[in-house]
Amino acid sequence: MLVAHCSLLIASGCARKAVPTTATNGPGTSVAVAEPAVRSTNTTFTFLNAKGKAQITLKGNKQGANIALRMRRDSIIWVTAGLLGVEGVRAVLTRDSVRVLNKLDKTYFTGGYDYLGKLLNVPVSFAQMQALLLGDYLPAPAGTAPTVTTEEAGRQRVSYPLAGVLVERLLQAGTGRVQQLKVSDDSTKRNLTVDYTDFRPLEEQASLPFAHATFIQAQQPGTGVVTAAVNYTKVNAGRERLAFPFTVPKGYKRIK
User: Fold this and answer.
1) Taking the CB of the first residue and of the last residue of the chain, which one, N or C, has fewer CB atoms within 10 A?
2) What is the model's pTM?
3) What's 71-121 look like in SS3?
4) Which helix (DSSP H) or strand (DSSP E) does residue 2 occupy?
5) Residue 141 falls within a domain, yes or no?
6) Distance, C-alpha 144 to centroid of its chain
7) Which tens digits make up the pLDDT trace of 176-195?
8) What SS3 class is residue 133?
9) In a domain, 253, yes or no
């Protein structure tokens, strides 16, 4: 559970990838438009290496953890969480697999994204996890025109349906960076909200603001509200190759 929520904090450096605007709507106007009307700016990099701290709150109980995140764009996501320098949980996500190692109870899991989908109660894919961790905009599915609302501050609120849920992103004016992500399912009263704050430029790409703080709030019947506050103390992006080790020690039990 801890690593899943930590994961949801969660090309020669990061670079701006702006999508041109072809529509101008007045403040408060909602209209279904083609993707070019969405003014988003995404990261484009080869490798990402970040470290920070996370605090998880579940049913009134708080649990802190040190986290490390490594990523090779469009290929692999590697996350660890632990206390006092001792790693407790490790997860590796590829485009078609999820592997989780729990050193606290000597168990491991290997499977597909249906695992994370059931754990988080929202549709999950590698592309969605990558966009969530980076604070990037993910376009609507093919054949679906997103609804764009232009707000007074010049921000864009973009929403579209996906696999039975509503996905909504709030884009900053000027920078085009995602400021908030919402995933909601009114029929089951489940929702996930991710707020991105503390935007600072990366040393490798001064023109790109990157969110060094992420606050996640998930709500579903039965478990109530779960929150995760993640603050990155170090974020590096570039071409430097990273390792993504994952080995299951002898004696660990596989869970299903």
Assistant:
1) C
2) 0.83
3) EECCCEEEEEEEECCEEEEEEEEECCCEEEEECCCCEEEEECCHHHHHHHC
4) helix 2-7
5) yes
6) 22
7) 999 999 999 888 888 889 99
8) helix
9) no
